[in-house]
Amino acid sequence: MAKPQGGYVAKKCPARAQWDTVRPCEPLRDSPFLQRLFTRGREFESGVVAQLLELHPDALVVTQRTEQNGAEREQETLQAMQDGVPLILGGRLPADPVSRRVGEPDLLVAATGGGYRAADVKRHLCLDIDGIPACCSSLDGVAWETADTPASARKRKDDLFQLAHYQRMLEAIGMAAPGARLGAIIGTEKLVTWFDLDAVELSHEPVIDVYDSEFAWRLAIIDIANEHLADPNVELAVGPVRSAECGECPWKDWCRAILEQGSGDVSPVPYMTRKARGIHLDHGTSDRAALAGLDYSTASLVAAKVDLTPIMDALDFEPLDTPLRGVIGKRRYRQLEKLNEAGFFVLGDARKLCPRTAGYPPMGGLPGQIDQAWAVLGDAMVYRRRGVINIEVPRGDVDRCRRRERRGGGLPLGDPGHQRAGLDGIEEGYRPFRQRKGTARTRGRTGPARTGTQARTARTRAGTQRRR
Ligand code: SF4
Q: Measured in angstroms, how far is the CA atom of residue 258 from the centroid of ligand 1?
């Protein structure tokens, strides 16, 4: 059985929950970029906590986390809630062994009618112009009862799932505030933005319900992964699906190898959404070869929302010289227009259509996906996009292509052959670029690479000259 999980598991890729359990290889370390994000996040959180402590001297800060003190911190947090401390910082909610949840909300805010509401500190903006309705309180008020500023907030699934997770944990110990299920995020605006977890919707469902089903699904995946560990004959529940999350995932190399097997999964095709991948699987298109085998012309009609089903059905029993107008219905002017533009006038013309492609529902990106799959599987390095005759890449007098340098060759896409203007006295062409140390101000300037000492000396001189 899966051990209790934090709120993060519901918002992560399902395959990640599985690999975290199975650990099929050594996970990659966090990239420097991710480490920097974490560090800055922690710094921001410490700043907000310090500010809150100044404004709320009666707030309780729960003992800092160590590897072993989870149970004591849970007890300390529970005791503080039972004592009615108005603001608890850095607490740890008692683990819920039944629903298998653990959670550490940054803030627990006492409600007027009893109980608590959870809030988290996040180093990102919470408010947006075209967001969802929310209400804000200031840092010196914090509580929902003091929230009197109507706002428009960003609908961030990750944040909402985190709050839903804490809400369920508070409910499990009978410490949730009565009434609406509310949780808050303190973003970089330094405002406490409150969200109603029953009112905010994701995919037309209240966010709390979506969180419940996502969390339950991850637990089921982890359970099956544990069964697989005990008995390798048990098949794992999910496979990898390429998404934006893969870039910083510790299992990306492992997943890439799986996704590239055979002609490759369709998910790495650019702009392929999970929903689109699901449609492809429903239509038997399980890899890139099958995707590349779809017909572009038929896909263009599908993408233009032409319903090809009556035409494909009529092919079996109507005379081939029947005008398409009589097949698709007289009122479908726009569809008829699209068919005529594509060269389809009578039923017999429709024999050129691909039945498999014609069976797809309207998918705007389908023709592009076919071309992308085709290009990946083809032999050439670069393909010209359909409809592009001449490639003109506007150039500056001096530019750098660091990617080209890193790869040690190859032209940037669309560069037909090094035809670049040079500055007076400077020979045309590419020159090696070397990353050099220095300040953000000095980094990226052209010129010979310098050692760290040389760069420091140069900076000191520049500073001295400026002061003069
Ligand atoms: S690499 Fe991508 S598919 Fe694989 S576990 Fe990570 S996020 Fe999921």
A: 11
